[in-house]
Amino acid sequence: MPRILIVDDDPEIRETMASLIRRQKMEYDAVTDVAETRDRIKTETYDVVLLDVRLPDGNGLDLLPELKQLPNAPEVVILTGRGDPDGAELAIQGGVWDYLVKPCSIKQISLSLNRALKYHSQKEKGGDLKALDLSGVVGQSPAIRTCFDTVAQAASTDSSLLITGETGSGKELFARTVHANSRRADKPFVVVDCASLTDTLVESTLFGHKKGSFTGAVADRTGLIELADTGVLFLDEVGELPLTIQKSLLRVLQERRFRPVGATREVTSDFRLISATNRDLDAMVESGEFRSDLLYRLKTIPLHIPPLRERKEDIKPLDMHFVNRLCDRYGVPLKGIGADFFEILHAYDWPGNVRELANILEQAFVASDRDKTLYAMHLPPALRIKVTKAQIMTAQSGIEDSAPEHEGAPAIPSGMTRAAPALNGPLPTFKDFKADAEAAYLERLAAEAGGDVPLMLEHSGLSRSHLYALLKKYSIDV
Questions:
Q1: pLDDT, tens only, 223-233
Q2: Which residue, 37, 125, 152, 181, has most beta carbons within 10 Å?
């Protein structure tokens, strides 16, 4: 018998939902806040969770990663009294089944609930999924686990996959992981570096050419698309493809046929396409730099790799992975890692993402020489200086913001309720200091922007998803 969990602090809503579920002869539990929900899902299993967003002790959306990680994870139907377009975006990205805004009809709720139950039942009957081979992919954060779900989905099909993410975030690693788990795993994985292709050689490189077809063509050459036959063609930095070749590539994707330069007959190639880019292709389409019809072909399955600064829970396991690998490579005993080492790495924003982290760890490894433990002193001075300066600036800002106002001094916005931490009292833990500083910054940001999210994004330099994650973390309304 299906089991439903109702999460809502409004007793009338809870009773209405309970009445609906009882009429359908299903079991249910009802809770009122985030803490009670966490306690309940530790011991009970549910098919569907009816989840409110604004709860007495936090935001219901914060529960989505935890619900997603449960064995036989329940489907989630959001039922909120305050519709929020950006909140809806975050919810759908978090994998919710439906997003309903109160007041909505009982019929609409019942329809959504029953569809979610049907989907959940079919998913259960689908049997156990093949275990993913995640060799070399390290991470345990909710954000990266969501990526693993997409990897599993992409590996089970031959559909085109578009991987997006900042430089150094691991796009090619994820592309190879999808390939390794697909039915084409033992076939070629051909990489095309689109950023290095010149207008004059791009067609010859992709499609190949016949001897004598142009000056310098002293022999036949097989193109990369033909080499990828039966395997994967990986277009790295696809956003760098010249417009002149985008139309030709579109036809190849549609027909899987092309003509080498100078040839009279077409060649076929049965390849699976995976593309990657650190650019915003939607924005490029709007500016005329990228063809919209090609973009549609590329992103049948989209996979976004979040930057390392948005999944700092992964820094520690990544550290241990890279350090252990370095110890193995150089044939030295495994090194320990000091707490101060982790603290510095967590305080840094990692603009170069995982690639930069790997490079920094190798520098620290070399600097440690025969030491058995890595400490903060082994990290590159430039990195330690950046982190220390940022901490000092945050502390000074906190002292200025918390100082009494005087004539000519800037006033603290009235909407700000928390002062940034100062260092003239008992020294807090680094974690507490950082949390207080972040909360103070966000409240002042919200006050000065008047709750205008686009303005907050412009002033802070944060991505939309990162800003909303922080606002939820500190329960700041805008």
A1: 999 999 999 99
A2: 37
Euclidean distance between CA atoms 320 and 325, whole angstroms: 8
Amino acid at 172: E
CA distances from 403 to 297, 399, 416, 437 (A): 57, 6, 14, 15
CB distance 84 to 92 below 8 Å: no
How far from each other are the two terminal CA atoms of the chain, in whole angstroms? 41
**pLDDT tens figures, 285-313:** 999 999 999 999 999 999 999 999 999 99
Token match 């919810």: residue? 91
Q: Can you list the domains of the chain with their CATH numbers? A: 3-125 (3.40.50.2300), 142-306 (3.40.50.300), 309-379 (1.10.8.60), 385-473 (no CATH)
Query: Residue 321 has which token pair?
Result: 């992975």
Per-residue model confidence as pLDDT tens digits over 79-137: 887 666 777 777 887 788 888 888 788 888 999 999 999 988 877 765 544 567 888 89
408, pLDDT greater than 60: no
